[in-house]
Amino acid sequence: MSTADTDRRSLPVPDGLDGIRLDAAIARMFGLSRTAAAALVDDGQVSVDGQVRGRSDRVSGGAWLDVALPAPPRPLTVEPTPVAGLRILHDDDDIVVVDKPVGVAAHPAPGFTGPTVIGALAAAGYRVSTSGSAERQGVVHRLDVGTTGAMAVAKSERAYTLLKRAFREREVEKEYRAVVQGHPDPLRGTVDAPIDRHPRRPGLFAVVADGKPSVTHYDTEEAFRAASLLSVRLETGRTHQIRVHMAALRHPCVGDLSYGADPTLAQRLGLTRQWLHAARLAFAHPADGTWVEFTSPDPDDLAEAVKRLRDQT
């Protein structure tokens, strides 16, 4: 942690905290989680009376604490940045629908420094809805950085309100294509399993008993020797939903190394990301309720992987 990224604090331990663990005292005094406080101690960012101590050491009232707190995160901002390969599928006064390439996030997020859909639209001169937080304005749903395909952005406030409601009420049809390892049994089915953050792996998600309701329908379109091409329809829209549910079935998306896919198979197919593509998006247009749908063909890297699977079968 560099000095530019820290906020140094020096102060005595209040008498009311006499005798408690160091990590608990740090958490209480600075409003941190116990985990974050323990991480600071373990990282050597805390001293007591000039001595680095362990997280479980007890503190005394009046002892002098010196703590290097992480600096407050900088506000996320949208940087207008052109994105090669991002195509406009549809544009009108209320919505713009894009075909998102791989490696592009929906909007700025902590820790991500790559291109975004919102930044690309800003660079191209598109006006989007001002609803939502500054970095997410106009975003009514998202695709993972490594997932390609059709994504809608609201341009008018009316569209933002109506589309957010439509996604929340499951009135939007979201169809994906996925190549998964092996052959699901049954070949057509539904996964109804709650999802939330992975209890041990930051940044990933998992099926957990107290997670958010999540429903995925799948149907096998084509079977290969080592994998299957699925048509997948989502009822809900949880982060990493298809990836998590397929992994839970022991059939992770090919190339999805984060969720247990075989790296040898991915290499053989020339894949550097998960085989997952948002192929179709359909909803009632926010202007007049007319049903509209938008489709995206498989991008070159995914199409090449399927060709290799067919050749090998």
UniProtKB/TrEMBL annotation:
Its EC number is 5.4.99.-. Keywords: Isomerase, RNA-binding. It comes from the Bacteria. The active site is at D144. Transmembrane segments: none annotated. The keyword Hydrolase does not apply. InterPro entries: PsdUridine_synth_cat_dom_sf, PsdUridine_synth_RluC/D, PsdUridine_synth_RsuA/RluA, RluA_PseudoU_synthase, S4_RNA-bd, S4_RNA-bd_sf. It catalyses: a uridine in RNA = a pseudouridine in RNA. It is an enzyme of class 5 (isomerase). One of its GO terms (biological process) is enzyme-directed rRNA pseudouridine synthesis. Residues 20-107 form the RNA-binding S4 domain. Coiled coil: none annotated. It holds the Pfam family PseudoU_synth_2. Gene3D superfamilies: Pseudouridine synthase, RNA-binding S4 domain. GO terms for molecular function: RNA binding; rRNA pseudouridine synthase activity. Belongs to the pseudouridine synthase RluA family. PANTHER family: MITOCHONDRIAL RNA PSEUDOURIDINE SYNTHASE, RIBOSOMAL LARGE SUBUNIT PSEUDOURIDINE SYNTHASE D. Responsible for synthesis of pseudouridine from uracil. This is Pseudouridine synthase. It comes from Parafrankia soli. The lineage of its organism: Bacteria, Bacillati, Actinomycetota, Actinomycetes, Frankiales.
